[in-house]
Amino acid sequence: MSSPTPAPLPANFLRTVIEQDLATGAFDGRRFGGSPGDAAHHAAGEPDAARIRTRFPPEPNGYLHVGHAKSICLNFGLARDFGGICHLRFDDTNPEKEEQEFVDAIIEMVRWLGFDWQAGDKSYLYYASDYFDFMYRAAETLIERGLAYVDEQTPEQMRATRGDFTTPGTDSPFRGRGVAENLARFREMRDGQHPDGAMVLRAKIDMASANINLRDPALYRIKHAHHHNTGDRWCIYPMYTYAHPIEDALERITHSFCTLEFEDQRPFYEWLLNQLADAGLLARPLPRQVEFGRLNLTYVITSKRKLKALVEEGIVSGWDDPRMPTLAGLRRRGYTAAAVRRMADDTGASKTNIWLEYAVLDQCLRDDLEGQAPRAMAVLDPVPLVLTNWAELFGAEHREPCQAPAHPQHPELGMRRFELGPEVWIERDDFAEVPAKGFFRLFPGNKVRLKYGMVVECTGCEKDADGRITRVLAAVVPDTKSGTPGADAVKVKGTITWVAAHDAVPATLRLYDRLFTEPQPDAGGRDFREALNPASLQVVQGWLEPSLAAVASEQRFQIERHGYFITDRKEHAPGAPVLNRVTGLKDSWGR
Ligand code: ATP
Ligand code: MG
Questions:
Q1: Average model confidence (pLDDT) for the chain?
Q2: Residues 531-559: pLDDT tens digits?
Q3: Distance 66 CA to ligand 1 centre (A)
Q4: What's the pLDDT at 6?
Q5: What is the mean pLDDT of residues 261-277?
Q6: Ligand 1 atom closest to the CA of 302, numbered from 1
Q7: Strands 288-292 and 118-119
Q8: Is 198 exposed, middle or buried (0-12, 13-18, 19+ CB in 10 A)?
Q9: Is the confidence at residue 587, as pLDDT, over 90?
Q10: 59 is catalytic
Q11: pLDDT digit string, tens, across residues 377-427
């Protein structure tokens, strides 16, 4: 009989592209030389056991953000689903901006998201800068075949002769140079005989092309700069548009998924790879570029440059500030990798850029944690509640043991234990001297249940000289202990959370709000600094139930009524708790 129908997958046209390519055999017969390389290297290799090859190609010039998570989940996820392999490739062809710190942070966060570039005993982690020699050789080949030339126009002249959407470009006076002269000049560039900006190597395609990207795009520029991998070996560096297709082809990528802004570059991608394959340098079948829409989240920015500004200007405490939309920030805030993957997977892939409501990420987190996070009680805005008849009923020294399940649906997780005593902490707003309509918590004459404890009847409060309430007073109603026979005989409309003054643990709790007040903080060229939310971080001193006294770092809880929290991975210590609120129990963004 047929198996149960699987849940429908979200619309993802990239799957269809792969399915069709597999059905038509577009990538059949590929060989893989075991490592990146030219046509000869792969021809000598084995038939490629990977049905497809994808890659995630970050530039190591900043930390990964939530938009990158989309690309990671797509590339690694599709490779996994189709029996392929996804490479992690550092696109480090640009000197100056790239740093080891970023390489390490990227590796850490791709792993955190749950992906791996290891298959069998092989690692598919590559650095584009390892391909500089090939890129140089390919450039000389293009020159030799009359497909590239050295242009000595100034950058201004080049811009001016490029034309625009309505005007065709005009040929550079250097466009007609012969092969020998081009080769000699290009080698001078390589040998450091010219200053930055003096000349560039350009492809010779068509200055009148309707696609401006085909109007003799630059391939190499002079940059006397130190590179984190190749040191001072090179003073010319390939342009991204030249480097990226070559990187894909050397690695035998089948599907090169990139964001929509590269759509206009696809004709050049194909031109370049076909020329180099015709010249015998690159193996066929060649990789195929397919563009998909970017994922943007409301109330955050995902430009690395702007995120860097937030860090450098001290607006946030670092790349992993829990308010940052970096993966390091989301992890520290307490989002789970499963929630981030779920958000990415549920949005599928389409041909338009999308703005996803931030609330969707929060809902993914709740869905993940609701069934597994242990419960706890804590008081975030404490005021003492004094049980005035405690001594009379039980004796002043008496402490009443109470218990609650660690998780309501998981009895195997056991019980949390704490005690009730003559004084407890309650939330300041759980008391009202004069109750508003519909207020069922503490007010003089009203009874409430202290959750998992006893019913108490409010008798009044005490205030300081400024009229601020210093203590709330109540009397225990006898024989109402939760879980004892007859405890429910006294009916109450309200139940409040509490922790006992004698066994509560003092804690620092960080309550976050969105970092920006605008759904699209940098839309229309607006300076994102103008949309900063001055109240994005509120730090409070509260009290936790004693079961959290020795809790380790990076543990998540649902604190009843207050939301999901995590013990901070850097600043928390057992005995000195520091907790971050990930999100509330329900969406309160519209409040
Ligand atoms: P930024 O403009 O912030 O520097 P980038 O796209 O230049 O971002 P890269 O490190 O080059 O950053 O990106 C690595 C990969 O992640 C690329 O393939 C890129 O297309 C993809 N990517 C980046 N941002 C998003 C996004 N918002 N949605 C989907 N994919 C993205
Ligand atoms: Mg980039």
A1: 95
A2: 999 999 999 999 999 999 999 999 999 99
A3: 10
A4: 59
A5: 98
A6: 3
A7: unpaired
A8: middle
A9: no
A10: yes
A11: 999 999 999 999 999 999 999 999 999 999 999 999 999 999 999 999 999
Predicted local distance difference test score (pLDDT) of residue 86: 98
- Residue 467, Cβ density class (10 Å: 0-12 exposed, 13-18 middle, ≥19 buried): exposed
> Annotated catalytic residue: which of 294, 308, 399, 569?
294
* Residues 165-182: tens digit of each pLDDT: 999 999 999 999 999 999
| CA of 340 relative to ligand 1 center, distance in Å | 16
pLDDT band at residue 588 using 50, 70 and 90 as cut-offs: low
Distance 98 CA to ligand 2 centre (A): 12
Ligand index nearest the alpha carbon of residue 62? 1
- DSSP string covering 511-534: EE--SBSSSSTTGGG--GGGGB-T
**Can 463 be counted among the known catalytic residues?**
no
- Residues 39-69: tens digit of each pLDDT: 999 999 999 999 999 999 999 999 999 999 9
Instruction: Note the pLDDT of residue 99.
Output: 81
Q: Which domains are seen in the chain, by residue range?
A: 13-127+241-295 (3.40.50.620), 133-240 (3.90.800.10), 296-370+504-591 (2.40.240.10), 379-503 (2.40.240.10)
- Cα of 14 vs centre of ligand 1, distance in Å, is 17
Residue nearest to atom 9 of ligand 1 (CA): 58
Please name the helix (run of DSSP H) or strand (run of DSSP E) that holds residue 297, with its range, or none. strand 295-297
Cα 334 to chain centroid, rounded:
12
CA distances from 211 to 207, 361, 531 (A): 9, 38, 37
Proximal ligand: closest to the CA of 302: 1
Atom of ligand 1 nearest to the CA of 304: 3
- Of the candidates 346, 312, 306, which has an alpha carbon nearest to the alpha carbon of residue 326? 306
Number of the ligand closest to the Cα of 349: 1
What amino acid is encoded at 542 in this protein?
G
58 lines ligand 1 (CB under 6 A): yes
Residue 497 CA to residue 490 CA, distance in Å, equals 18
Ligand 1 pocket check for 66: Cβ under 6 Å: no
Regarding the beta carbon of 289 and ligand 1, being less than 6 Å apart is answered: no
Distance from residue 58's CA to the centre of ligand 1 (Å): 7
Buried b vs exposed e over 360-390: b needs ≥16 C-beta within 10 Å?
Answer: bbbbbbbebbeeebbbbbbbbebbebbbebb
Active-site residue (options: 177, 266, 288, 304): 304
304 close to ligand 1 (CB < 6 Angstrom): yes
**Is there a contact between 556 and 334 (Cβ–Cβ < 8 Å)?**
yes
- What's the angle, vertex CA 170, arms to CA 169 and CA 172, rounded to 5? 125
